[in-house]
Amino acid sequence: MDGENHSLVSEFVFLGLSDSWEIQCLLFVSSSVLYVVSILGNMLILLTVTFDAHLHSPMYILLANLSFIDLGLGSVTVPKMICDLFRKHKLISFGGCIAQIFLIHAFGGAEMVLLIAMAFDRYVAICKPLHYLTIMNPRMCIFLLHVAWIVGLIHSLIQLGFVVNLPFCGPNELNNFFCDLPWFIKLACTDTYRLQLMVSAISGFISLGSFCVLIISYIFILVTVQKRSSGASSKALSTLSAHITVVVLFFGPFIFFYTWPFPTSSLEKFLAFFDAVLSPFLNPVIYTFRNKEMKVAMGRVCSRLLKKVV
């Protein structure tokens, strides 16, 4: 394909989630409420960890970064999806589509590494409690955060490098409500079969590999916990159950997108909606309502803010 074909498609059209007016109304209300709550919840976690000295520990610093990533992931796709629900033509520019792909994979890659770092933090806290402060010192915490963001950016740049120069000469309809590689590549007016396999293999291997590492690590921790006292065991199990829930909710859609050989558009859209809207909402709910220390700290921060306002 010559250079002219690269500019033939300057924008893409989202087909959206549904053509039904009733479903669109339901999606508008539910998405708006969940997005606002997730933004407020994740911002509250960030403020609480930042301004409460009692939470300046590795576990809560990693949790605050998870909230920051959830703010980014949700804001990349959800606001436009809400605005597009009642639009007849759901358009996004070529540059906007590329930006969505880059940010989704940058935030997603960083979150994968961050969840592994959080599992490592729990392993040290539960299995090596006497050495926790020595191993999980501030330098280690900062190192893990740097690794998470560097891996996320490198992963996103590599993925984008495969597709940014593909020729697009029509059609330009994406059967979803945001841009991502599996649907974007299919629109290129050239043979992309091998490229689709390579991109799916890379993302699928990273997602499935990270998920397996996390599950194995949690199994190892659970086996270790069973040898402890019942009190310590119940507390550790409560913490780990929250972590495992977040891991399953986050990795489930990614693994399906990149490894399931027989995808259906309706199921893809449901999982995409779940991953974009519900995951950023559920993360603060799962972590805060199951953590007494976080709830107490939130109360302290809220009371300080109210006193300043008054």
Tell me what you see in this structure.
This protein is mostly helical and 310 residues long. Helix content is 75%, strand content 3%. It has a three-stranded mixed beta sheet. The longest helix is centred in the middle third of the chain and has 34 residues, at 94-127. Residues 1-7 have low confidence and may be disordered.
Could you give the topology of this structure?
Blueprint (H helix, E strand, L loop, with lengths): L10 E4 L6 H31 L6 H27 L5 E4 H34 L4 H4 L2 H26 L9 E2 L6 H6 L6 H34 L3 H30 L5 H24 L3 H18 L1
Parallel strand pairs: 1-3
Antiparallel strand pairs: 1-2
Average of pLDDT: 84
The proportion of strand residues reads under 5%
How many strands, what sense, and barrel or not for the largest sheet? 3 strands, mixed
Q: How far is it from the N-terminal to the C-terminal residue, by CA?
A: 65 Å
Question: Tally the helices: what do you get?
Answer: 10
Structural class: mainly alpha
Shape assignment? globular
* Secondary-structure element string: EHHEHHHEHHHHH
Strand order of the largest sheet: 2-1-3
Stretches where pLDDT falls below 50 for ≥5 residues?
A: 1-7
CA-based gyration radius: 21 Å
SS elements, strand count: 3
Into which percent range does the helicity of residues fall? over 70%
